[in-house]
Amino acid sequence: MGYKTIVEDNIDILVAGAGLGGTGAAFEARYWGKNKKIVIAEKANIDRSGAVAQGLYAINCYMGTRFGENKPEDHVRYARIDLMGMVREDLAFDMARHVDSAVHQFEEWGLPIMRNEKTGAYLREGRWQIMIHGESYKPIVAEAAKKSADKVYNRVCVTHLLMDESKENRVAGAVGFNVRTGNYHVFKAKTVICGAGGASNIFKPRSVGEGAGRVWYAPWSSGSAYGLMIGAGAKMTQMENRIVLARFKDGYGPVGAYFLHLKTYTQNAYGEEYESKWFPDLQKLVGVEYLDPEASHRTHRPIPTCLRNHAIINEVNAGRGPIYMVTMEAFQDPHLEEIGWHNFLGMTVGQAVLWAATDVNPKYENPELTTSEPYVMGSHATGCGAWVSGPEDLSPKEYFWGYNRMTTVEGLFGCGDAAGGTPHAFSSGSFTEGRLAAKAACKYIDDGKAEGIRVSEEQIQRRKEEVYKPLETYTVYKNDVVAGSVNPNFINPRQGLDRLQKLMDEYCGGFGVNYMTNDKLLNIGLKKMAILGEDLENVAASDIHELLRAWELKHRFLTSESVFHHTLFRKETRWPGYYYRGDAMKLDDKNWHVLTVSRRNPKTGEYTMEKAPLYHLVGDLEDKDLAKLKAEGHH
Amino acid sequence: MPTFVYMTRCDGCGQCVDICPSDIMHIDKSLRRAYNIEPNMCWECYSCVKACPHHAIDVRGYADFAPLGHSVRVHRDEEKGVIAWHIKFRNGKKDLQLLAPITTKPWGSAIPKVADAAAPSKEMVNSELLFNEPKYVRMDNGGLNTLQSNGLSLKEGVYY
């Protein structure tokens, strides 16, 4: 193969993947590491990469401490209830106490944040969300990262992390290839901050054919955050906690602004309110601690996202679908109508295209909602990701091993989707986590923890062969057949992805089985996954673009395998509406009020699972309204 | 929805190839113009549509659920700091033009170079503060929230 090997040596901080988390890391690292060498590797173009490439119309995580609105602990309590208790509260508190400083800087850099004309505060969409004109959110933030970094490698897909050969379990950089030139890139680094993304397209999507790209999370979110870290032997947490979204049908346009700002609401096909009738039975499964409609009605306490999904799923199964979003009232106000459209154009243009194509004018017609296929990520109403250390001043001993946001692999840090147990970070919180990781990575280096790293030529060559193997496989076997995509010796990346999606859907609780699985199905699924894993050794790529797809598929596969193991391990139904364990339909706090932690042995591929304790913030953080309800004798 | 490129408008400049987050805008080698090589990996994010200097790229809704005959066009102008949208329905009954700001500052002018900021003190290095903090958290001189300052502690187990 005629591809060159390009080595970037003596890197202090390598940012692998530069969405909002990675850009935050690169930006901040320069302040704590004035003379440090900071390098970014991004598989697309940093100006439009990651989940925010398209833009956003809201920043969903902003405390507003400046305007006296919320305290960090308020946000922790909110995230805790929404995730049915399963949150790393040290990380969540840490993110929340810093997040406003990120948002205030974004505004200074030129990001248009809407203001409430009466109060002068940012215009609130909901308690945590502020409204922005964020079409250029990503290019603005990317500019800040570019100014801090020594070098930005666009179009370099990172495939593996390099490991130190002088000290076990210590990172030493990363390797990958340039998706334009095909060249092999070696990054020798003292620390790596993984800012890569979560996973779309691992469960069979509802759309077929051309529409398969119209997924809720970006199609380029290939689970590389997990693929890279799992491959290096980092411990992962809460990987069973996939998310299902209730969104506008087919276009998956966002509903947050519609619910919160436009005050639209949902009803069934016959114009009836349907949610509350499913709650009594659901309460028997999850307990009043997690579903308390009265408390939610009278206080800020949310009804968990998954439980609202549960009501939609059941109402549709009972034959009273589709569920509609009632827009016809709000859209009579021309100002709100305009916001409704701007909301899509700013972050999900495809939904505007779909309504234009189908002549859906929400002023005269209520649009349909649906529940999506599941996604695996860590910054929305879900907290999949690596098991990382918290900050020194907050974390109990089980959650702290020296450096904030460092994974269980020394020198490897995670932020955004890569950091587990930190839901509801969204864009601003992911950026903040990147900043926290960057400061800690600088400290790690300054403390002398990255001395004496050794990477052999053998490791670099071995990875190189692995990286290009799909091209080799194609070259060797393509002429066995006359033409076409059917070959007895290999599968192409699309064929592999289709197989993965079908398998995840049918055995791991996708939309096709109404999000249901059990121990038997999961075990069959794991058996089939092992064989798919073998076949992925024979995935073939006809060109460099397909090589990118081959590696995205391998990262998606490692993510999926982890999801299987975690789902099998947690023997309860913790999040009805995200997925159900048919053999354990009840939430079980006695045995499962814990975080799940896994490790895949990089040498053998074997998984070990463990439970980690859950700590909750206690003290002066009771919601005043909730306290009043309790005082009145409400349970 | 999946993008396509008008033959007569594209000059093969490659701006779309450069920006596409999904790596699906490629140059056709014989026609020397751009096209979408993998429509089912297109997020209709419009990054390429916005980047095209000739408005040569457009979007046709996904064939599996969007009927023909609609249009959502866009013009993004960094100099003026605005983005203009034009939505046309299939039945022609709705024709919307919307304008939104994309920045409040002359493009790119207000992004700081962190390397030029004064180096952090040792005290700051050993604190939990980030760059520009604590000032930027509350925009006054209030300190950072801690468990202690907020009267909190972390307790193991089931607690609500």
Question: Your description of this structure?
Answer:
The complex is a heterodimer of chains A (635) and B (160). By secondary structure, chain A is of the alpha/beta class. Among the domains of chain A are: 5-196 and 385-446, FAD/NAD(P)-binding domain, CATH 3.50.50; 256-371, Flavocytochrome C3, Chain A, domain 1, CATH 3.90.700. In chain A, 38% of the residues lie in helices and 16% in strands. Chain A has 18 helices and 20 strands. In chain A, strands 1, 2, 5, 6, 7, 8 and 15 form a 7-stranded mixed sheet that branches. In chain A, strands 14-9-18-19 form a 4-stranded antiparallel sheet. Chain A is globular and about 70 Å long. Chain A starts with a strand and ends with a helix. The model of chain A has no long low-confidence stretch (mean pLDDT 96). By secondary structure, chain B is of the alpha+beta class. Chain B has 3 domains: 1-66, Alpha-Beta Plaits, CATH 3.30.70; 71-104, no CATH class; 112-151, no CATH class. Chain B is 11% helix and 25% strand. Chain B contains 4 helices and 8 strands, in the order βαββαββββααβ. Chain B has helices at 15-19, 47-51, 122-125, 135-138, and strands spanning 3-5, 25-28, 33-36, 57-59, 71-77, 82-88, 95-101, 152-156. Chain B is elongated. The mean pLDDT of chain B is 95. At the A-B interface, helix 1, helix 3, helix 4, helix 10 and helix 11 of A face strand 5, strand 6, strand 7, helix 4 and strand 8 of B. Strand 20 (615-619) of chain A pairs antiparallel with strand 8 (152-156) of chain B, so a sheet runs across the interface.
